[in-house]
């Protein structure tokens, strides 16, 4: 991909976000935490699929996170700490 579809206008209702862009959510206070452990796992799987270097792929993934993303050592710990401070975790499957 060359663009993040959830941060690009012009798709309107074609995406499940109904045209709501990440920047709009950031303005409303959305903060993103990215689990380094999970990202390393994805990097290893990508590397295996393309016969690449997992460390280089991991660094590329981290360097290309969307604005307002903070890499954290373990996502579950970040979620627990945020909930202790009154934040909510909402997931949709």
Describe this structure in words.
With 93 residues, the protein is mainly alpha-helical. The chain has four helices and two strands. It has a two-stranded parallel sheet with strand order 1-2. The longest helix has 15 residues, at 36-50. It is flat and about 40 Å long. The protein starts with 21 loop residues before the first helix and ends in a 9-residue tail after the last helix.
Question: Keywords for this structure?
Answer:
mainly alpha, 93 residues
- The rounded Rg comes to 15 Å
Oligomer: single chain
The outline comes out as flat
Beta-strand fraction estimate = 5-15%
- Termini Cα gap: 23 Å
- The proportion of residues forming helix, as a percent range, comes to 40-55%
SSE-based structural type: mainly alpha
Q: In terms of per-residue confidence, which ranges show pLDDT below 50 for 5 or more consecutive residues?
A: none
How do the helices and strands follow one another from N- to C-terminus?
A: HEHHEH
Strand order of the largest sheet: 1-2
Overall pLDDT confidence: 87
Major sheet description = 2 strands, parallel
Number of helices: 4
Count the beta strands: 2
């Amino acid at each position: 991909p060359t663009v993040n579809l959830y941060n690009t206008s012009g798709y309107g209702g074609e995406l499940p976000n109904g045209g709501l862009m990440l920047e709009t959510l950031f303005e409303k206070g959305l903060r993103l935490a990215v689990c380094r452990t999970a990202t390393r796992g994805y990097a290893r799987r990508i590397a295996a699929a393309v016969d690449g270097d997992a460390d280089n792929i991991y660094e590329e993934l981290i360097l290309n996170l969307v604005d307002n993303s903070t890499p954290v050592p373990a996502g579950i710990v970040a979620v627990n700490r945020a909930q202790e401070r009154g934040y909510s975790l909402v997931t949709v499957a």
